[in-house]
Amino acid sequence: MRSLLLIALLTLSLQSAEARAPLAPEFTHIGSADWINSKPLRLRNLKGKPVLIEFWAYECVNCLRSIPWVKDVQERYADKGLIVVSVHTPELPQERSAANVRAAVEKFGITHPVMLDTDYSYWNAMQNRYWPAFYLIGPDGRIAADAIGEMHIDQKRAKEFELEIDAVLNRSN
Questions:
Q1: Largest CA distance in the chain
Q2: DSSP secondary structure string, the chain?
Q3: pLDDT tens sequence across 33-74
Q4: Where are the domains of the chain?
Q5: For the domain 22-172, what is the CATH superfamily, name and number?
Q6: Do 99 and 78 form a contact (C-beta atoms < 8 A)?
Q7: Rounded distance between C-alpha atoms, residue 113 and residue 34, angstroms
Q8: What is the rounded radius of gyration, in angstroms, for the C-alpha atoms of the chain?
Q9: CA-wise closest residue to 111 among 169, 62, 72
Q10: What is the rounded CA–CA span in Å between residue 173 and residue 18?
Q11: Closest CA relative to residue 57, chosen from 26, 103, 92
Q12: With a cut of 50, which residues of the chain have pLDDT below it?
């Protein structure tokens, strides 16, 4: 009897923790010129699907080192429903140029949607402060997990974040 009560309390605790997780703000750029590899996306239209949001800048060394991991995650989880969206928020003046970002996206072979956030509106809406930064949005639209700094294939931190992705995908199925 005690174990059933403990399980019920734990379940309620986990559910209330999930309910307290903040809602991810809506993407702030809706013009076609602000998106690469995609028409403008709206989070509200992606509700029910898990979304990995990556903040990056094309001259950020730590961001560049994370590209192989982001591509690997995209490839491994796409058929399970994960949507990857990179948000390019410039760190340096030359990174404000849409043409430069488009050239970098092509150079690095990035095929998933990229939102140009030159005015830092989404950066600020997410209260982000780091390049790179990763936010996993659950199918309920809430931030399920986050991580800052480089991610590398087979790295312990990356594997831990991938466990979070697996958990969100399992809840969405």
A1: 64
A2: -HHHHHHHHHHHHHHHHHHHSPBPPPPS--SGGGEESSSPP-HHHHTTS-EEEEEE-TT-HHHHHHHHHHHHHHHHHGGGT-EEEEEE--SSGGGG-HHHHHHHHHHTT--S-EEE-TT-HHHHHTT---SSEEEEEPTTSBEEEEEES---TT-HHHHHHHHHHHHHHHHH-
A3: 999 999 999 999 998 999 999 999 999 999 999 999 999 999
A4: 22-172
A5: Glutaredoxin (3.40.30.10)
A6: no
A7: 10
A8: 17
A9: 72
A10: 17
A11: 92
A12: 3-17
Write out the two tokens for 120: 């830092």
CA dihedral over 56, 60, 63, 67, signed as positive or negative: positive
Say if residues 136 and 164 touch (Cβ distance below 8 Å): yes
> What amino acid is encoded at 1 in this protein?
M
| 106 residue type, one letter | E
pLDDT attached to residue 20: 74
Structure tokens belonging to residue 173: 């199925």
Q: What pLDDT, on a 0 to 100 scale, did the predictor assign at position 171?
A: 86
Residues in the chain, how many? 173
